[in-house]
Amino acid sequence: MAAATTPSQKIAGGSFLLETRQPCEVFTPEDFNEQHQMILQTADEFAAQEILPNADKIEHKDFSVSRELIRKAAELGLSSVDIPEAYGGMEMDKVTSCIVADRVAVYAGFATSWGAHTGIGTLPLVFFGTEAQKQQYLPRIANGELTTAYALSESSSGSDAMNCRARAELSADGRHWILNGEKMWITNGGFADLFTVFAKVDGEQFSAFLVERSFPGFSTGAEEHKLGIRGSSTTPVILNDCKVPKENLLGEIGKGHVIAFNILNIGRYKLGAACVGGARIATKQAIEYAKQRKAFGKPISDFGLIREKLANMAIGIYAGESIVYRTVGMLDAALSNIDKSAPDAARQICKGIEEYAVECSILKVWGSEMIDYVADEMVQIFGGYGFVEEYPAERAYRDARINRIFEGTNEINRLIITGFLLKRAMSGQLPLLPAIKKLMDEVMAGPSFGDADESAFAAERSMVTAAKKLTLFAAGSASQKYMQAMPDQQELMGAIADMVIESYAMESCLLRAEKLAASKTDAAAKLPVAMTQVYLAEAMEKVESRARKVIAAVAEGDMMRTQMAILRRLGKHEPIDTIPLRQMIAQRVIEVGKYGV
Amino acid sequence: MKILVCMKQVPQKDAPLKLNEAGTWIREEVSYEVNEPDAYALEEALRQKEKHTGEVVVITSGPARSQQVLREALAKGADRAIHLEDDAFVGLDAFNTAKAFAAAIKDEQFDLIFTGLQSDDYGFAQTGVILAELLGWAHATIIMQIEKTEAGIRVKRELEAGYFQYVDMPTPAVLTIQSGINKLRYATLIGIKNAKNKPMRKVAMAEVASAIGPNLQKIERLYVPQKSKQTQLLEGSPGEIAKKLVDKLRNELRAI
Fold this sequence. Notes:
The complex is a heterodimer. Chain A is of the alpha+beta class.
């Protein structure tokens, strides 16, 4: 289905750092087909007519409303996009799945329940369930009768989930698993019917189980009092000699980590999409407020510093869309060749997604930090009204914060980004080392004076290339010094991750702008081009500062000075005046009253 | 019952509109959506079909982009679609549009034709009525309710000041449907999936060109209303001022 619009060539995960892509090779929101657009519209209408009018009730923890909304969404098919047709689902592509995650995210309290139910709650069963398990549960999940949850964390194990204390033992008659332990921070804990619970068989082998709320020995604790996403249910799950039928073991004994990690990859790209959706409505509300709030006799949307914020918020959405849909476009291209009826289709899909673990983590980190920024500026634009509960900014600000914590903290995800790339480089899967060597040779050869490229976007393309080179240069220098011990250098790993993230975001913005410029009128492309130019300028500064941090840490004396000189040469670019660009962007978003690409 | 629903693609409600250089229409660089009254007409047709069985066919005229309204209708449950596809259809007045529609459906036998009461862009409210005249059918406007009777249909029309009119009509007939008379359904994902496989008949301009003639209506000039402020000082005793104020609000501004 996606084949018509998604570039069919399979692109290796992480290769963006080494290879130059053409606009036609990336998927963008402008490539949504008619079907995508109609589903987007249905999701938008559902959000506006069903979710937003119920937000206050849900915020006061009336979870019967959340359940009813999930049931209604199931009737429309929105909640079963990732469930195979054979089990009553819609079985659509990942672009559709992200469109829905993005558009449902108008209210974070519900979006969290939604994400847990349609994503991490249901997908372990979709990918790792036996035929009998899928027959037993999936049709009832697809039609909204059952809601689901995912129980991995414990009070003393979060990022190190494998370290869990929950245990499972086979009963004397061999017919049941007896589960004991306590899970914490379980989204949908208060109302879900089916939980994917992780526990160690005999205290050693990390495994997953399908546990129904009605099983004897299963209970949930009191609702947590949270900083944000108060409209979602978060409780402990208590397993007290909980009797789970033997056939409810999910996957293999001792292979729970395969489930946990694969599901988190999916959770991450979907979370990236949801962050974009959250930022979209926050920006819309901020624009509306700025237009009607007057100070010194004119609307505050006339003032430069407010306009700068509105422009930045819109740029965040543009860049977020660009990385999210580029990534899921790649996922769909990679998954399109899998025979969905093959017995190991689900495993192949997981493997296909794991290929893009770096990109999934980028979406999670970048998206969560973007929405945090947007929500923060939203409060600022609302001023005093941003600080009180009667206005939407206060809740948006609190709700945004969790995104940097769940689905793997941003710190863990930064380590994954750099760690995964280094691991692939070491194993030769990704020719990172030859690329670094080539770059070093280029550096040693001194500056070249080729013909200046005067084509459209030449300056922007050279900036993206420079960002990638700086990233490779810093990663090369750091790994030369620390070799195998690199993973222990968390600060360096984090700085390199930032450079990787920004390189991906910069290139995604640029490729989308180029694609738009080629297909639309100049007037229509003006806005995305300006957004790209501003984003590139800002991101480049970040890349340069991280490169300096890394070089200063790994080299000293003359070596350090030489490397800094190289760094300056690699990162050389003409500064651009971003003020008129932001003014133009702000003017446009104020005119249309929302993010306007 | 076999029902045809005439639908139109119009600029999105919140789209910022800019006049074209000639000042005769807006610039095309906007997003489009289904004309709202037409969405209610479609909903009513689908409900009639659910009640009495039959077929719902949707028709529109316009460039390739306008196919979107037909796909949306198919996703919501219409059985097939007819697309008069050509950029030139955009410039037709209501008379010619109705003629083009009449020509495109000359081999079909519908019991009812629904249109939205009017379009959100031009707002002529003429196409449906003219179409009835061309076909020689009965018609009624501003319809709020339709019931099938033995002899035909009984419709409820909205009149002014809260009055309604009930009319017994023969079929075939053309009805223009009022907005808000029912609750619009969502296009479900399964409906969207199935819409791809439903028949869509394309009608080229050449096929209907002989039916249409020069436009009878022309927009001379379009302009954005100027905002202006006027201050009037009302004088007299407080009672007199209040009286004058009420008189102005009621009779001049018609605000109360």
